[in-house]
Amino acid sequence: MSAVRHPRQGVTELLAGVVTSLALIPEATAFAIVTGLDPRTGLFGAVIIALVTSVLGGRPAMVSAAAGSVALVAAPLIMSHGLQYYLAAVVLSGVIQILLAAVGAAKLMRFIPRSVMKGFVNALAILIFSSQLPELMGVPSLVYPLVALGLVIVFVLPRITTVIPAPLVAIVVVTGVAVLAGGAAPTVGQKGSLPDALPVPGIPDVPWTAETFVTIAPIAVAMAIVGLIESLLTAKLVDDLTDSHSSKTKESWALGIANTVSGLFGCSAGCAMIGQTMINVKAGARTRLSSVAAALSVLALIMSLHGVLAIIPMAALVAVMIYVAFTTFDWHSISPRLLRRMPVAETLIMVLTVLVTVLTHNLALGVGVGVVAAMIAFARRVAHVVHVERTVTNEEGDVPTTATYTIHGTLFFASSNDLYYSFRYAEDPHEVVLDFNDARIWDASTVASVDSITHRYEKNGHEVQVVGLDPASARLHGRLSGSL
User: Fold this and answer.
1) Contact at 8 Å (CB) between 43 and 195?
2) Per-residue pLDDT tens for 304-351?
3) CA–CA distance from 396 to each of 99, 192, 401, 402, 408 (Å)?
4) How far apart are CA 146 and CA 484, in angstroms?
5) What is the bridge-based pairing of β-strands 270-272 and 64-66?
6) What SS3 state is found at 335?
7) Rounded mean pLDDT of 148-170?
8) What gap in Å lies between CA 310 and CA 193, rounded to an integer?
9) Above 90 in pLDDT, residue 264?
10) CA nearest 255: which of 278, 283, 232?
């Protein structure tokens, strides 16, 4: 509505959307080809996903489309079972994202550590780069100077001007050189059919059996999780850049609906596009109008210029994708200065996330392993910050009458198991006080440990008091004590 009330802002939104669309086309085309799909599946997928998330999403100005991270996850399924199984997986991934939104999965983003996020981004960059290598093997010699020319443009032009997207300039120039050279460099048109008509909805042509579900389910789950993670990470980034708040749950709903619709129209799955979103936001976009304009601009361009798209040499797209990989990689995360300051465990978690992802080509598995490793590291770290102090009071002559144990720290299954061995059962006087004023009981394992301590004292004739429990700890202790 602000764009309507303020015409100048409306013009800014529209122009930002048009510029963003110029950056969407080459990447949507390249990602489709990389995974063995026709360019039209990626291009129309970009239109559908961008349009649906623009209207229904929770983060205005963020651009979602057919994305490389999701495409890379699905590549093995496309190679082994073909397009229709992939489309079924796209629809299922959308349904899974809707279900995750319904149970509030967006809130779980708080539990993904920074080191895992950095590993996810870096692994994605490595996979994007490695996916280009087949396009550089067994090709005519003309391809190599064309790729080099494209790389020079995409890396140098942004230093001069950002008015026109460097990937677009690279594609135009490299295509022109290839045409003038008259060489036999592979083109986009040779990779599959390009759009000449709007897609029509339909159910994926696969046998709807348990065997099919078992085949597509792992890929669908991976696509759903990877897409959701990348979208929510991008939404948080836009929140920070624009100093505004967005609804992550609403964005999750929108992404699920967008992927479901895209799959039913025979198009690619997708999620938020970090690079295109940055172009949009830095051009001044702040509302949904910009991303709607981007979607409609892509549609207009591919329907009117599909003949031109066919003659684009693959070398141009390879250069663009290498640039995307380079800019996606978080180089600061591996700078020697930062690594010297970073805890070793944090660095190892990032490396583990990258290694698992790259070796398995499964971004969701890499994130999952990274999160589990981070949890183990955190549990080990917290387990060692619990300590117990013993003081003896009310002495009558040389005979102590009361031993007070003050427990410090967070008590849960990893830290409370050693609590039992922190007491001098044989040496303590008749009265023993367990003071929890500076501690917190978090789980049943801790209650069981406290019960074991008090039971051993009482079995030897001691009188034990448990004091200082905060209300939450007291409720948990009162409910479970004696029954474990």
Assistant:
1) yes
2) 877 777 788 888 888 887 887 888 788 988 999 888 888 888 899 999
3) 67, 94, 7, 10, 28
4) 71
5) antiparallel
6) coil
7) 85
8) 8
9) yes
10) 232
Give pLDDT, residue 192: 66
For residue 23, give every residue at least 6 positions away whose Cβ sits within 8 Å of its Cβ, in sequence order, or none.
165, 167, 168, 275, 276, 279
Tokens representing 161 are 């001007």
* Single-letter amino acid code for the residue at 424: R
- The structure's pTM equals 0.72
In this predicted model, what pLDDT tens digit does every residue of 346-387 receive, in sequence order? 899 999 999 998 888 777 788 889 989 988 888 777 766 788
Chain centroid to CA 140: how far?
A: 37
Q: What angle, rounded to 10 degrees, do the helices at 471-480 and 444-459 form?
A: 70
Distances (CA, A) of 249 to 104, 108, 232: 7, 11, 9
Distance CA 206, CA 175 (A): 38
pLDDT band at 436 (very low <50, low <70, confident <90, very high): very high
Question: ∠ at Cα 144 (142, 149), nearest 5°?
Answer: 100
List phi, psi (to 5°) of 312.
-65, 125
